[in-house]
Amino acid sequence: MYESDADYSPGTLVKFGGEKEITIADDKANAVITTRPGLVLGSNSESTSSEKLYKGIALVGRVPVKCIGLVKKFDSLALSKTAGYAEACIRELSSDAIGIALENS
Question: What is the largest CA-CA distance in the chain?
């Protein structure tokens, strides 16, 4: 669980940094807000205080990701120009790939 600077919805790409521990990915992506974490570490960091907002993130694994544009199954994904979203990229031309699409979108 990481302290977030905003209430990001599942599938949003995030990075370490910003005002808190994580913020929306705009120039690089380190993780994605998860829908169902398989293992929660740091859960005792959660606070009942309304001042702090904690989000579960996935660093690896099968996780839904918000995408922009046409994405075909098995396309490589890279961070898009829209913060927090991925887009299809040409694997051979990009070293910025962050994952592989497992379904069409």
Answer: 47
Beta-carbon contacts of residue 83 (< 8 Å; ≥ 6 apart): 24, 25, 26
Q: Which residue has the higher pLDDT, 39 or 59?
A: 59
Alpha carbons 5 and 14: distance in angstroms, whole number: 11
- As beta bridge partners, residue 79 has 86
In 3D space, the residue among 44, 56, 41 whose CA is nearest the CA of residue 4 turns out to be: 56
Sign of CA dihedral 29, 35, 39, 43: positive
The token pair at 92 is: 């051979």
Output DSSP code: residue 73: T
pTM listed for this prediction = 0.86
